[in-house]
Design goal:
There is one protein chain. The protein is an all-alpha fold. The chain has three domains: 1-30; 38-89; 94-153, Photosystem II 12 kDa extrinsic protein (DNA polymerase, domain 1, Orthogonal Bundle). Helix content is 66%, strand content 3%. It contains six helices and two strands. It has a two-stranded parallel ribbon. The termini are far apart.
Length: 154
């Protein structure tokens, strides 16, 4: 009885290990979601606003609400269009000594804060002499540098 109990425990343990490995492999194969689609959000906002407007009794208030929602939707769509135009007009590699904050933020791994730090360090140095000087900036280690290095030049 003791031997069969031990064998059952070993088999259960091996089974749990196999299941754990399968779950870890599955987790790494899941697609990463990075983009938020503003158009879908703005469309749903307009639809929900339109339904709330139709239930309002006061016509002038309803018209003001509708105009407000349309204005906000227009701003969202215009902002998204400007971002799309900017990202399609940027040519890589980007020159660190002449680039703007917006150009730097088109590189994956560089957000506004890190881009501003790159520009501030450029001003401090009086200009970059080597791309590797980016590693001197707090928050840019070897891994981040390796990711952004192909997209920048001096």
């Amino acid at each position: 009885m003791n031997s069969s109990h031990r064998q059952a425990s070993i088999i259960i343990g091996i089974g749990l290990i196999v299941v754990s490995i399968v779950l870890v492999i599955y987790a790494f194969k899941l697609p990463k979601v990075n983009n938020i689609e503003l158009e879908d959000y703005s469309s749903s906002t307009v639809t929900s606003a339109a339904s709330s407007i139709s239930s309002t009794d006061d016509n002038s208030t309803a018209l003001e609400k509708q105009n407000s929602v349309v204005d906000k939707t227009t701003v969202i769509n215009e902002t998204q269009s400007q971002q799309n135009v900017l990202s399609t007009n940027v040519e890589y590699p980007i020159n660190l000594n002449s680039c703007s904050l917006e150009e730097l933020t088109t590189i994956e791994g560089i957000g506004e804060t890190r881009a501003q730090a790159i520009l501030d360090y450029r001003d401090y140095l009086g200009g970059y002499t080597s791309v590797s000087q980016l590693k001197d900036i707090k928050g840019i280690g070897d891994a981040t540098f390796a990711k952004i290095e192909p997209y920048v030049t001096v």
